[in-house]
Design brief:
Blueprint (H helix, E strand, L loop, with lengths): L1 E6 L8 H11 L5 E6 L7 H6 L6 E11 L2 H13 L5 E5 L7 H6 L2 E4 L7 H20 L7
Parallel strand pairs: 1-2, 1-4, 3-4, 3-5
Helix pairs in contact: 1-5, 3-5
Length: about 140
C-alpha cells in the first residue's frame, strides 16, 4: 500500500484535477491513499509521526534531500516491495516543510531539484513520479528515458 501524507491543507482548485488524475493512475498499479493534513491543525510533526507505523518505509520529498533519477526512484520502490515492506509513506510538507524530527524518521529524503517548489506543485510531482516509477516497473511506455 502507498500512503501520501501532504501538509498544507486542501488542494488549490487549479491543482486538484491534476493531482486526482495522477492518483487515479497510481491506483492502477497499487492501492494508494492521499491524506491532506491541515497546516493549522494537523500539519505539525507530531501529527505526521502519529500516522506512521514503525515498519513503514517513509520517503520524504524535501529540497535538502538527495537527487534521484526516475529510474533510481523506481528501483527504490521495487526494492521495498521485494523486501516485504507493507506500506510506503510519501510525505510532502506544507508551505514551511517539515521539521528535523520528521526528516530524521524518513528512511529516504529525496529532492526534486535544488530549487524550491510550492508545496501544491510538489504534491503533484510526488504523485507523478510515483506513477512514473510504477509504470517503469510494469514496463509501460509512459517513461521514455
Amino acid at each position: 500500500k502507498l500512503l501520501f501524507l501532504f501538509g498544507g491543507g486542501k488542494y488549490d482548485a487549479e491543482i486538484l484535477p491534476l493531482a486526482e488524475s495522477f492518483l487515479i493512475r497510481v491506483t492502477r498499479y497499487e492501492n494508494a491513499e492521499v491524506v491532506l493534513l491541515s497546516e493549522k491543525k494537523d500539519g505539525d510533526d507530531e501529527t505526521i509521526l502519529k500516522r506512521l507505523a514503525p515498519e513503514d518505509c517513509v520517503v520524504l520529498f524535501d529540497e535538502r534531500g538527495k537527487m534521484s533519477t526516475s529510474l533510481e526512484f523506481a528501483k527504490l520502490i521495487e526494492n521495498k516491495k521485494h523486501d516485504g515492506v507493507k506500506r510506503i509513506v510519501f510525505i510532502v510538507g506544507g508551505a514551511y516543510g517539515v521539521g528535523d524530527i520528521v526528516r530524521a524518521r524518513a528512511n529516504h529524503v529525496i529532492a526534486f531539484s535544488p530549487m524550491i517548489f510550492p508545496h501544491q506543485l510538489a504534491r503533484v510531482m510526488a504523485l507523478e513520479q510515483t506513477y512514473r516509477a510504477l509504470s517503469i516497473l510494469a514496463g509501460s511506455k509512459y517513461h521514455h528515458g
